[in-house]
Structures are given as C-alpha cells and as structure tokens.
Design brief:
The protein is of the alpha/beta class. The chain is about 35% helix and about 15% strand.
Length: about 475
C-alpha cells in the first residue's frame, strides 16, 4: 500500500491553526494555495537531507518505477539532468583526460548549460541534414572534424526531432580514442520520436559506458500495460518530468538511478542535486509528487491503457482523413503540416475551435494529451477532422536541412560564460554563438555555443522565426 506522508503532513499542518513564525511570508493566508505552502520545519523533512517523510515518499516512487533509487526534483527535469551528468562525470573521472559526452543532438538546452557549468565537451550523434531523404541517404554522427556515416530510415525530422540508428553508437564508441564518460539520449523527443533504448543500452554496456536518458516526456511509459520506460529497457540513469505526462504540478520531476549502479548512493544523488538546486524547494510540488504515487499505484495504469486505445482510434480516423502523423508515442499527437497550411496556420484553426496545442512550428503541430482527458476526446477529434479539409491530403512540408557545424572557436563553457551581446540576425554572420538557438526544447540546435555562425545557419534561424542571437563580444 502506497502512503502519502508529505501530502498528509502538509494538510494536517494547514488545518492545525498553529501560528506560523517561519517562512514563507504569506503565513498560510490568502485566496490561493498559500495554506498548503510551507517550508522545512520540524517534521517536514528536508529535500536534500531527507530522512523522514520525503525519504518515505521517494522510496514509494522508487518501488513504482522499479529503480534502484528515485529522488524528487521540485525544479523539473532540468535539475535532474544536471545532477545526472555530474554523477556520471564523477563516476568516470579519468585524471589528465578532457571529459566528453556522446549525445543525441535533439537535446534540451539544459544539456548545454550543464556542459558550461561542468566544463565537459560534447560530441554529437546527429542528423547532418533534416530535409526529405530516402532510406538510401545517410545520417552523420560526429563533432568538430569527426564524422561517421550511418543509414537513415526517417525523413523530415525538423529541429524538434532527430532520428537515430543506434548501430552508429557501436561504431562511434569503437573508433573513439578515449571513451566518453557517458552516452546521453533524449527519448521521447518533442515530436514523439522514440529511440531504441534497449539496443542503445546493450551497445553502451558492451563498451563499458553508462547510458543516460532525458525521459522528460516519457514518465508515463512505465505505466503502460508493457513498460517502455528507459530504466526497464536498460538505461542507467534517467530524468523524468512528472508534470509533463503525469498528474503532478509544474516543476515536479524525478531522477532515477538503475539498480545496476549500486555504487551511487542516495547521499551521492542528493549532494549532486544540491549543487544546482534552490535551497527552498516548493512543498506544493513535493506534495503533488507524493499524491501522484497513490494515483500511479491505483487508477492511473488502467486509465492510461484505456486512453492509449482511444488515441490509437483517433489516429486511425485522422489518417483515413488524409492527415499525416509522425512519432511513436502512445499519447502524443504530432501532425505534419502540408503545403496548403503550415503548422502555425493549423494551430490557429484549432485555436478558433477551442484547442490549444503544445507546440507549432512551420512544419509540425504537437498536441500533448493525458488520460484525464478521455471524456474530451470527441471534443478534440471533431475539430481536427473538421479542419483537415483545409490542409490534409496535400504534400507534407519538408523541413530545411540542418547546416553543417560551423567552425569551433570556443568550448561551450567559454562561449556561454563569455561577455555577450544581442544582435539582429543580419549582423551575426561570422560571429561566435554564445547562447542556444532552440525556440522550443528539446530540439536540435541550429548551431551550438562556441561555433562560428555561417550564412546558412542564419537563414535557418530566420526560417524558424528567430530575429536575434546572443553572440560573444568582440575583444
């Protein structure tokens, strides 16, 4: 039986009538959630030194996810990702060697900030071109001057998804002069693309390298009738955003460590998280994670299974109407825009009919749905089918090719920490990028911090609606 010790404590404290001679300043008074908003105090435990109700709740979550240990984040997956990278970096530290990470390029911007803070290099597993291509065309994996050519079975990935043939991992790791401290993959991505995590994990482990997964969009995968969660497929550490796909408040997240990494302790994880975290985590978020445990144990798996079947039916109806879909996620709907209507036009058509999308760019529209919306599925499906006549059945839009990487002038750390200025795109050619070029993460960066900006890169920035860039100041 899953308990809810944090939520129970917060509610009991709110009802106690005690005089709050402690933070926060609202003292539990107000017209919103103030009465349940508390801080660390006697009995409330402390997130980064947990030995009471928070520890009990995290152990409940670990049982639900089948992890070796699970720790809460009140700052989403961003905190979990930075801590996960620090743990991996410490574990594989090799004196005298410059640490580097082999990563899928469709990474959340948090990966770049972590590289700047922890001062490691990234070599990318990436699509060299993201336009239309056949199964015979090639992918490129590499960084700087190091590239590996691999077959491509996807096309039109845009900047929000980066298809990857995991067989490239074996070649990349075999050819590396020194091994990375970890391999880092993002799956699922924003468009619902899913990497073969099981195959990737087998390859990583054969080379003695651990696999880290940004699973921010896939916390729910554990609770499908057959789990598709990265931990169950062989990942060694995993960052989940509870708030994206589970019934939890914004900012609720997990850092999971596999049972295979028995050398990483809870104290290690807490210490790593505390390096980057606020010392005032929200108890509203912690109580939300705590309540979520009970839902995950009881009704959520059944609701998810029913909802996934209804999603399959809706996808069938849309495809019969000529709508082209992409992605492999059971509860995410990603529509490919057509030459008759770009993604922003489709978004506006849906907004006029009462549907607010998660994301739209020129080439794709993404709807993130959840089991609690089962009663709204007809309301969602009908406007999609009604508007399909404006744009379905036409050739799909083909995203432009991703430019070749520009000259590497600085490390990511040097670029992100350098003096910077914001310039209009017309003045950016030849300058060194100092901040990310993704408008909707996780996404494939048009360019990476520290690279010199090319005319081709700037044109692609215009295509995706960017008007300015942050560049390193000239000395």
């Amino acid at each position: 039986m899953i308990t809810t010790p944090v939520d129970d404590f917060v509610r009991a404290y709110a009802d106690s009538g005690i005089v709050r001679a402690h933070m926060p300043g609202h003292k539990g008074r107000g017209e919103g959630p103030e009465r349940w908003d508390i801080t660390e105090m006697t009995g409330a435990d402390s997130l980064y030194e947990a030995d009471g109700i928070i520890l009990e709740s995290e152990e409940n979550a670990a049982r639900l996810f089948g992890s070796g240990l699970t720790c809460y984040s009140a700052e989403g997956s961003s905190l979990s990702i930075r801590a996960m990278l620090l743990l991996a970096l410490r574990r594989a530290q090799r004196p005298g060697e410059r640490p580097w990470l082999l990563a899928g390029r469709n990474a959340h911007r948090t990966l770049l900030s972590a590289a700047a803070l922890l001062d490691f290099d990234i070599r990318w597993i990436s699509n060299a071109e993201c336009g239309m291509r056949s199964a015979e065309s090639d992918h490129v994996i590499g960084s700087n001057n190091s590239e590996f050519r691999i077959p491509n079975s996807e096309f039109g990935c845009g900047l929000l998804s980066s298809s990857m043939n995991v067989s490239a991992l074996d070649e990349a790791l075999s050819r590396a002069e020194t091994l990375p401290f970890a391999v880092y993959l993002t799956s699922p991505d924003y468009l619902g693309g899913v990497v073969d995590i099981r195959a990737a994990a087998e390859i990583c482990h054969a080379h003695g390298v651990i696999l880290l997964v940004d699973n921010a969009h896939g916390a729910y995968l554990r609770f499908l009738p057959e789990s598709r969660h990265p931990l169950d497929l062989g990942a060694d550490m995993c960052a989940d955003s509870a708030h994206k796909t589970l019934p939890a408040l914004t900012g609720a997240g997990y850092l999971h460590v596999s049972k295979r990494l028995a050398d990483i302790t809870r104290a290690d994880v807490k210490a790593a998280m505390s390096v980057f975290a606020s010392t005032s985590p929200s108890y509203l978020i912690l109580a939300s994670l705590d309540r979520c445990n009970r839902l995950l144990e009881r009704e959520f798996p059944g609701q998810l299974a029913t909802f996934a079947r209804r999603m399959d039916l809706m996808k069938e109806h849309l495809e019969e109407a000529g709508v082209v879909l992409t992605g492999d996620e059971p509860i995410k709907l990603t529509i490919r825009a057509t030459r008759a209507a770009d993604g922003h036009m489709i978004q506006r058509l849906l907004q006029e009919r009462g549907i607010e999308c998660e994301m739209a760019d020129p080439d794709f529209v993404t709807l993130m749905l959840a089991p609690c919306q089962l009663d709204q599925m007809d309301t969602i499906e009908r406007p999609l089918l009604d508007t399909a006549g404006y744009w379905a059945g036409q050739p799909v839009r083909i995203p432009p090719a991703l430019p070749s990487p520009g000259e590497r002038v600085m490390t990511i750390r040097e670029a992100m920490l350098s003096p910077q200025e914001t310039l209009p795109l017309s003045q950016c050619e030849g300058r060194v990028l100092a901040s990310d070029t993704t408008g909707c993460p996780p996404a494939v960066p048009i360019a990476v911090c520290g690279e010199r900006l090319t005319e081709e890169t700037i044109e692609l920035c215009r295509y995706y609606g960017l008007k300015t860039l942050r560049v390193a100041k000239l000395r």
